[in-house]
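I would love for you to help me understand the pair of lines that follows before we discuss the fold together.
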Amino acid sequence: MRGIVFDGNKTIEERIFQDPSPGPNQVVIQMKSSGLCGSDLKPYRASKLELGKRAETICGHEPCGQVVAIGENVTNVKTDDRIIVHHYSGCRICKYCLSGWTQLCQSDKQRVYGFNAHGANADYQLIEDYMCVPMPDALSYEEGAAIACGTGTAFQALRRLNLSGKDVIAIFGQGPVGLSATFLGSHMGARILAVDPIPERRKLAIDLGAWATVDPGKYDSVTQIMELTSGQGADCTLDATGIGSVRAEAIRSTKIWGRACLVGEGGDLNLQPSPDIIHRQINLYGSWTFSTLILKELSEWVVNRELPLSNIITHRYSLDDVSKAFEIFNQGKTGKAVINWN
């Protein structure tokens, strides 16, 4: 089968790998759609030395496809089932694995597919049976791929914030995760303030339901958000950038008694705890992806409400065009980008 690996310094290489065969409790998925995620850009931009073993590992962690083979003892799926892949595996027996939060497994068996185990950018993927999340028939494969990471991550963060139609939420960063939060949050009834320096992304945010946008290149984002909220600040804020200074702005633009959630990976954060958090009674959350149950809940929520999730997808490619896909995605002007198989 064909598989894609990062080869260092913004280069992509297609290699031939052996077709996978399932062992006990394992499943082989024929890939139908795979999403590109902002967290792919760090290894994409890294040198080959920095990549280490990742240069031998198939990339991609937003898999969606169809079951083509099952191993012994597999009872939860059958061949031809349409599947969203929860891209983590673990020990199977700890409280985190048993509750569907496999990424929190503390054992040495914990794996993140597309990082330290072969991922989604290949014709087939070998996974553990409990990583399979059944997908409603009304959901397209590319919508399932979006849910498999970026959109699912946004949904879980909004759940952490207990977002409702009473809220004004400022969402910092309108990449795939932030844009998904804008789309989902607007359908939850909240007023969305979409913060991003890139004009194309601000326009996408408006198209997908944002009430107003904030251009941090114009002047201070905190000041702009205060102006848009009559000096109160946003009821809640979400940072999807992972940039330290932006994270601090998200927290400082949150109203007294408000809620702030950090989603963007990496970077740092410098705050003065008393004036920025304690004296303003801020609830500060961290949110890391989602459980298998959250993926199922989101899939059904999108279908039951007939949400046009495909509207967040602006760029579609084949596996043959994956180098071009990453080159354009790296420019930071797209919405969701996916790789589709016929």
Summary: The mean pLDDT is 97. The chain is about 25% helix and 25% strand. Residues 2-149+290-340 form a domain with the Quinone Oxidoreductase; Chain A, domain 1 fold (CATH 3.90.180.10). The CA atoms of residues 233 and 255 lie 4 Å apart.
